[in-house]
Amino acid sequence: MDILITVQALLQATVRMATPLTFTAVGETYGERAGVVNIGLEGLMLIGSIAAYAVAYFSGSVPLGILAAAITAGVFGLCFGFITITLRANQIITGAALNLIGLGVSSYFYRAMFATVTDRAIQPLQPIQLPVLSSIPLIGPVLFDQNWLVYAALLLAPLAGFVLNKTALGLSLRAVGEHPKATATAGLSVLGLRYGAVVFGAMMAGIGGAFLSVAYANQFVENMVAGRGFVALAIVVFGRWRPMGALWASLLFGFFFALQLRLQTQNLAIPYQFFQVLPYVATIVAMILLRGQSAQPKALGVPYTERA
Amino acid sequence: MAPVPQRIPAADNLAGATHVHRFHMMTTLATSRHAGRTLWQNIGLPVLAIAAALCAGALLLAATGFNVVAAYSALWQGIFGNPRNIAEAMLRATPLILVGTGIAIAFRCGIWNIGAEGQFYMGAAAGAFIGLRFGNLPPLLAIGLALLAGVVAGGAWAGLAGWLKVRLGLNEVVTTIMLNYIAIGIVSYLVTGPWQEAAHYNPQTDEIAAALVLPRLWPPARVHAGFLIALIVPLLASILLFRTPWGYALRAVGLNPQAAKHAGINVNRQYVLAMWLSGGAAGLAGAIEIFGVIGRLYENISPGYGFTGIAVSLLANNNPLGTIVSGLLFGALTTGSEMMQLTAKIPSSMTFILQGLIVVFLVAFRALSSRSGNR
Fold first, then answer.
1. What is the predicted pLDDT for the residue at B33?
2. Could you give the residue ranges of the DSSP H alpha helices within A132-216?
């Protein structure tokens, strides 16, 4: 029984830890499928976590905070889109700058707004036990006794996959990332589709960041995203630019994070850092194994211009 | 900035390219250069970007209820108020210049090294290893060995990503980011495990021998001899990039890998070479940080130098000599922001905002300027 409880707690933590990664990686999958790579996810997540926390703290409403996170990160995504899509500036460099700004802005507002606040805790999102389902042994507590943001992430991936693969909108998005010129010839707006994908990706990163400050923890901590934005970037590749792939990869990374946290407190022969770096090593190994059958969108990172 | 930073090396230097293709490549390089615009691109636009970032920063300060005049005069004071502040800015600039130079080399070759952070950690670890194990060697020799070890470790770490790219076709953006976390994990393991201090209390190594610490240039100011290295390395990198056939081949790959290949340049070798050089500079920065400032290895030795270095390089238009200026600017912004925090109570994270805004405005201005140039 002891083992079962340990495994159950581990898997519960896995799903929780995977949630911010899932939101962010699914969003970025859309952006990259449309041909825009945004390495500024880390910064966007930080912006999301401070926006959600500040609004939740002052309004008392966590859902309002999450909405604020999506909108704020979306606005930053719009700026990123303007510079990379309209002005056609380099996406990697603009993303790197976005990370600096996100780190700066989140800490700045936190210190400016909460300098005099002593009790900084909020009431985070609480788990909602789904009737019947949550009483299934093992699977119940792991999948059906979580907060609604976790459920949203688990639903987001298949939904995003369906839209991308089975709808006209998804087809247009994929086409824009593969053959923007042909898409334009077919009468679709390349810039419009890319803007949409980038802003959607930014909003998802914002929600991913919000999860950390208002659901996973109960307050904002400076630099609390701690590299998850970069991990999400790897997850997109690991998940082969598919929303469902991103979900599975997020769960895998979430598992390693949860495992590593547990092992850190135990006295094991294997150093806990081994598990800490395992997901990153695994990403490289997976990339090696899957090489040659690249699923990377052909126009990824290439700004679109109507002129030849 | 370099007097003539983007000059094409004289044709007789181009030993790497065959005669037939040399002319074609020369014209490719020459048309990418807009004569007379270089000065505007390299100095005018950065100054404009800095001004725009300060204006946007002022709006942010005003919107959050701070006194803009008090804030910016504190920033000014923090940078120029005292010669010691300038020396402190030089100290802060040292790793940024070295990392920025490394990134400039990679970006010039068209390979996206986002892994300078990890390369910095590997260099720091290798340097600390020499400092701790060979501390009884003559100081000059030990320091020299340690810095060399830093270069090799950082270079190898980056070279691995380069190798994975050319041999197995792995995207270097992702592999370098992954290698960052692996390097940070390795350092974390070392300082909690085999290399932990004799007291086994904190996750850090013992201190390196006092004789090995890099001498300070103007004590008591903290700036040390490593700053001089940070002046020499960009100079060497600049000569390599702009005055030698190797640098020419490297930049040719960055401008157009297809054309470079047709001209007989081994593109894959250039990628790996650029990564080695790039990581070597970041690794050197890590080793210097150990021997100049910290004196030991511990977790989180870098406050994101590897990422800020990208901005430093970009601001210098990926020109190694220019990173001296942009590195000093970013170092000065750091000391200035600390003064803003001290006297005007403005969160010091303003540094990152200003640095990020400078880059954003600069890429935007450059994009706009090249658009108008194409018409």
1. 52
2. 139-144, 148-166, 168-178, 180-185, 190-211
pLDDT tens-place string over residues B155-184 = 999 999 999 999 998 889 889 989 999 999
Q: How many domains does chain B divide into? A: 1
Segment B223-227 shows an average pLDDT of 92
State yes or no: pLDDT of B214 exceeds 70. Answer: yes
Tell me whether residues A89 and B310 touch, CB distance under 8 A: no
Task: Record the tokens describing residue A25, joined without a space.
Answer: 């990686």
In this predicted structure, what is the pLDDT of residue B5? 37
The complex scores an ipTM of 0.89
Q: State whether B347 and A108 contact (CB < 8 Å).
A: yes
Residue B348, domain member (yes or no): no
Residue with tokens 């804030």: B71
Q: What is the pLDDT of residues B263-292, one digit of tens each?
A: 999 999 999 999 999 999 999 999 999 999
B359 in Cβ contact with B308 (< 8 Å): no
Q: Is residue B215 part of a domain?
A: yes
Prior bond to B220 cis, omega within 30? yes
Nearest CA in chain B to A89: B367
- Minimum CA–CA partner of A92 in chain B: B112
pLDDT in the model for residue B242: 95
Residues B154, B155, B157, B159: what is their CA dihedral angle, to the nearest 10 degrees?
Answer: 170
Integer Rg of chain A from CA: 20
Q: Whole-number mean pLDDT of chain A?
A: 90
Per CB-CB distance under 8 Å, the chain B contacts of A103 are: 304, 349, 352, 356
Topology classification of domain A2-116+129-289? ABC transporter involved in vitamin B12 uptake, BtuC (1.10.3470)
Quick one: pLDDT band at residue A118, thresholds 50, 70, 90? confident
Q: Chains A and B: how many Cβ contacts under 8 Å? A: 152
Name which of B346, B344, B301, B73 is nearest A104 in CA terms: B346
Enter the tokens of residue B34: 């807009």
Give the CATH number of the domain where residue B119 resides: 1.10.3470
Residue linked to tokens 């100290």:
B91
Asked whether residue B153 is domain-assigned, the answer is yes
The partner residues of A145 in beta bridges, in order of sequence, read A129
Exposure string over B208-241, b if 16+ CB within 10 A, otherwise e = bbeebbbebbeeebbbbbbbebbeebbeebbebb
Domain ranges, residue B264: 84-331
B208 within domain boundaries: yes
- Separation CA B321–CA B6 (nearest Å): 11
